[in-house]
Design brief:
single chain; 509 residues; 20 strands; alpha+beta; 35% helix; five-stranded antiparallel beta sheet; binds flavin-adenine dinucleotide; globular; 17 helices; seven-stranded antiparallel beta sheet
């Protein structure tokens, strides 16, 4: 047996599926050897599953043909960007074919007059702002993962980021998307024009987590780089004082471009990596960024300084020029990676609470960590009440994983109990599907499923292939995600919803 034959004998995809995909995109753009598929088993969350095969189309038309091939082989499809997602969205459940968009990474058009760009979905987020900076423009949504995540993944998750407080998340900056539907139809929802009439199908598609179809082009709105940008970093000796500062800034009628917070554990993780030299007694650090016309920014930054001081800030650092501002941001932007100095793995919970509940919820999050013996760092978008408790643990210790899932569940319950939501920006994916009933009724979820059915269009979907009848059409794209019962969070570790409840405070259940 040759080495290729040996690999083929271990392949999970049938030779005919591999050959049919290769016929569309070329041999080198189909990944089917088990050892190569390992790369596509995971994203930034803790769940894992192996794909049947991965195909990397080089154009929207090729992506559409790949969907038709998958239909003919009765295979489900999981679209994938950079795999930085934090809710398990890109994990290929049910032996799916992964359609990876990494090769579709071009900036196709920049219309500086109308401030619109058309890009492919595999474009890495930061590359768009880097490219249009020469025209005095930028693309606002800036997930902290922006050096790696793709615009297509951002559309699918309706991603946010530090600078989405004043300007809104991805949906506020996307004018239209070209998509492939379940039968391989390629069409635009919205478009590069600023106004469109009819149903807002673009809006419905954004945030659909890869369950409606594949994004193959994105028309985005670009913004003019503000006349002045001013960054303030303030250290506080208590988390409460920092949280109060957040409320006071917004209460003063100021909506900063960004308003971010890091707690003591995060500061400790960052110190050996970035050496920011924050005061030794700092329990929390706030970053407040203001932008706009010079006069307004100057006036607002004075107010922000006053508020920080009145809440007992122990140190304030300020910067206007890009290099010094980047220095102030370096710790915040790299904070999640720096958690590696404390533990080998992290699990980042994404819940939202009303800003006024921040102090109480942060206290309760800390109590969850104490109760379960887990270290939890907090680095988050404080301005919009979007918490990111980062639970630090060792993925190889199953008991710890179980506790981590319990802690995540408890934290989400706390957010909901305080009038918050299940996700600010990372989506539901596998991770939060079991918790959907905490905020949605059966009727709510049926309405959402109805919308998904409309996009998947059962008639078209089932006529897409020769024998495409075994997989229900509702499962065709990204099966097992978003709705309860689709998959079990932690299954890769042998953990089920039942074991989480049995081990936790739900003993009575
Ligand atoms: C360190 C770190 C920091 C982060 N910070 C932020 C943050 O500040 N804000 C934020 O919102 N998120 C953040 N994230 C989460 C993540 O980066 C975002 O969810 C991002 O949008 C995912 O993009 P991706 O290209 O990696 O998508 P993937 O992880 O590959 O996929 C995510 C989902 O999108 C679907 N998908 C991907 N591409 C397409 C496509 N072309 N068509 C249809 N569906 C598609 C997938 O099926 C999956 O459901 C962070 C992640 C990390 C690791």
């Amino acid at each position: 047996m040759t080495s290729v034959e040996k690999a083929a004998s271990r392949a999970t995809a049938s030779p005919s599926l591999i050959a049919d995909l290769q016929a569309q995109v070329g041999e080198r753009n189909v990944v089917w050897k088990p050892e190569d598929l390992l790369l596509y088993e995971y994203d930034g969350s803790i769940d894992r599953a192996s794909p049947r095969v991965v195909v990397l189309p080089g154009s929207a038309e090729e992506a559409a043909e790949c969907v038709k091939v998958a239909n003919r082989h009765d295979a489900c499809i999981v679209p994938r960007g950079a795999g930085t997602g934090l809710s398990g969205g890109a994990i290929p459940l049910r032996d799916s074919v992964v359609i990876g968009l990494a090769r579709l990474s071009r900036i196709l058009e920049v219309d500086t007059k109308n401030r619109v760009a058309i890009v492919e979905p595999g474009l890495v987020n930061i590359e768009l702002s880097n490219h249009v900076e020469q025209f005095g423009l930028y693309y606002a949504p800036d997930p902290s993962s922006q050096k790696a995540c793709t615009i297509g993944g951002n559309v699918a998750e309706n991603a946010g980021g530090p600078h989405c407080l004043a300007l809104g998340t991805t949906t506020n900056h996307v004018l239209g998307v070209e998509v492939v539907l379940a039968d391989g139809t390629l069409l635009w929802l919205g478009g590069p024009e600023r106004e469109s009439s009819g149903y807002d199908l673009r809006g419905a598609f954004i945030g659909s987590e890869g369950t409606f179809g594949i994004v193959t082009k994105v028309a985005v709105r670009l913004l003019k780089i503000p006349e002045k940008i001013h960054t303030t970093l303030a250290a506080f000796t208590s988390l409460d004082a920092a949280s109060q500062t957040v409320s006071d800034i917004i209460g003063a009628g100021i909506v900063p471009a960004a308003l971010e917070m890091m707690d003591r554990i995060t500061i400790d993780a960052c110190e050996p990596v970035y050496h920011p030299g924050y005061p030794e007694d700092a329990e929390a650090v706030l970053i407040v960024e203001l932008d706009g016309l010079t006069e307004a920014v100057d006036e607002q930054s004075e107010i922000v300084d006053r508020i920080c001081n009145s809440n007992g800030a122990s140190e304030i650092r300020e910067a206007d020029d890009p290099a010094k501002r980047a220095d102030l941001w370096a710790t915040r932007k790299g904070a999640i990676g720096a958690f590696g100095t404390i533990a080998p793995s992290y699990y980042l919970v994404d819940g939202v609470v009303p800003r006024t509940k921040l102090q109480e919820v942060m206290r309760q999050v800390r109590a969850v960590g104490d109760e379960l013996g887990l270290t939890i760092g907090n680095v988050f978008h404080a301005g919009d009440g979007n918490l990111h408790p980062c639970i630090l643990f060792n993925e190889r210790n199953r008991d710890e994983v179980l506790k981590v899932i319990q802690a995540g569940e408890r934290i989400l319950e706390i957010c909901v109990e305080h009038g918050g939501a299940l996700s600010g920006e990372h989506g539901i994916g596998i991770e939060k599907q079991a918790y959907m009933p905490l905020v949605f009724t059966e009727d709510d979820m049926d309405a959402m499923k109805g919308l998904r059915e409309a996009f998947l269009n059962p008639d078209h979907g089932d006529s897409g292939g020769d024998d495409a009848s075994a997989t229900p059409v509702s499962e065709r794209f990204n099966p097992g995600k978003v709705f309860p019962g689709g998959a079990s969070h932690g299954e890769a570790y042998g953990i089920t919803e039942h074991s989480v409840r049995r081990a936790g405070r739900h003993d009575e259940v």
